[in-house]
Amino acid sequence: MLIDNVKVTVEGGRGGNGCVSFHREKFVPKGGPDGGNGGNGGSVYVIGQNNIYLLKKFREQPLVKAESGQPGAKNKKHGANAPDLIIKVPLGTRITNLWDNSQVEILDESSRFLLAKGGKGGFGNWEFRSPTNQTPRQFEPGRPGQNTKYLFELQLIADIGLIGLPNAGKSTLLNALTQAQAKTADYPFTTLEPNLGAFDDYIIADIPGLIEGAHFGKGLGIRFLRHVERTKLLVHCLSCESENLIKDYQIIRQELIAYNPKFVDRPELLILTKADVLDKKTQTKLINQFIKQNLKPLFVSVLLEESLEELKAVMKKMVG
Ligand SMILES: Nc1nc2c(ncn2[C@@H]2O[C@H](COP(=O)(O)OP(=O)(O)OP(=O)(O)O)[C@@H](O)[C@H]2O)c(=O)[nH]1
Ligand SMILES: [Mg+2]
């Protein structure tokens, strides 16, 4: 399943502690303080990348933390600064700071944003020397890094929407075309929330099945249609197992238009799913019924690789 929102705790690295040390040398009885400062902790930055699956790893590992700075050492040696940590999120991710609600959108690959600053390293005792205190034992511990909680949300606008009656094979098709792992089963209303997947650079949305009367709130309701409202192409899935595919098509079309009349002239592609259940003769009869209605559907079966390739090619051409 495509992970499109995650909560992530982001922590800058802690600064290294300052060092307490006194100069030791033969014939120099009272060497002064020489403890060096600690190095700064690493900061955490985020950059965008063209890969919609990048949020998944944060679901598995919701804490991101940069390394701590090294402590200071004798001879006024500074501890090393820790390297910054750069994390990647998909382009189109909206990042909300859950503590102050500030937001940023990651829209290109060239900018990077600071999520959590590393803590400053502490002063070693050398920094505390003064005319009145030549043997300071003070030092500063390293400061903790910033710690913030963020919500990463992928704002995807699907190019293609799969719609159809329950059990039409929409989720199975999504899985066959993309890396999505949507739940599928041999009963209606398997899908309860939209699923997203991508092939090449095209994003496909699979939504719960629609039924007659959906725009009055029947079934799972039409609220999921907003997920396909801005798609460039609607793919109507009509199951070859159905008794009357033309009627199925008309039901879905009426529901769409009742929901939003703008759907009337949205480019659409009709596909007859589960084509493998029909023999050639029945397929020809069926296609002729559609042609009479001035409709030109495509037979598709997830068991027939060529039909999937053809479908991909047609969808690409229609989306542009
Ligand atoms: N023979 C065959 N069966 C298929 C094909 N595609 C899907 N199915 C089966 O059809 C059933 C329904 O598939 P789903 O993908 O869950 O259907 P859906 O349209 O997503 O259903 P809802 O989520 O309930 O709207 C499953 O048992 C699938 O295995 C196909 O190309 N050939
Ligand atoms: Mg489904």
From TrEMBL:
Start and end residues of each OBG-type G domain: 158-320
InterPro entries: G_OBG (IPR031167), GTP-bd (IPR006073), GTP-bd_Obg/CgtA (IPR014100), GTP1-OBG_CS (IPR006074), GTP1_OBG_dom (IPR006169), GTP1_OBG_dom_sf (IPR036726), OBG_GTPase (IPR045086), P-loop_NTPase (IPR027417)
Domain of life: Bacteria
Localization per record: Cytoplasm
GO cellular component terms attached to this protein's record: cytoplasm
Signal peptide feature range: none
SUPFAM superfamilies hit by this protein: Obg GTP-binding protein N-terminal domain, P-loop containing nucleoside triphosphate hydrolases
Main location: cytoplasm
UniProt binding sites for Mg(2+): 171, 191
Gene Ontology molecular functions: GTP binding; GTPase activity; magnesium ion binding
Keywords for this protein: Cytoplasm, GTP-binding, Hydrolase, Magnesium, Metal-binding, Nucleotide-binding
Domain Obg stretches: 1-157
Residues the record lists as binding GTP: 164-171, 189-193, 206-209, 273-276, 301-303
Class in the EC hierarchy, top level: hydrolase
Classification via CDD domains: Obg
Subunit annotation: Monomer.
UniProt family annotation: Belongs to the TRAFAC class OBG-HflX-like GTPase superfamily. OBG GTPase family.
Role: An essential GTPase which binds GTP, GDP and possibly (p)ppGpp with moderate affinity, with high nucleotide exchange rates and a fairly low GTP hydrolysis rate. Plays a role in control of the cell cycle, stress response, ribosome biogenesis and in those bacteria that undergo differentiation, in morphogenesis control.
UniProt protein name: GTPase Obg
Native source organism of the sequence: Candidatus Roizmanbacteria bacterium RIFOXYA1_FULL_41_12
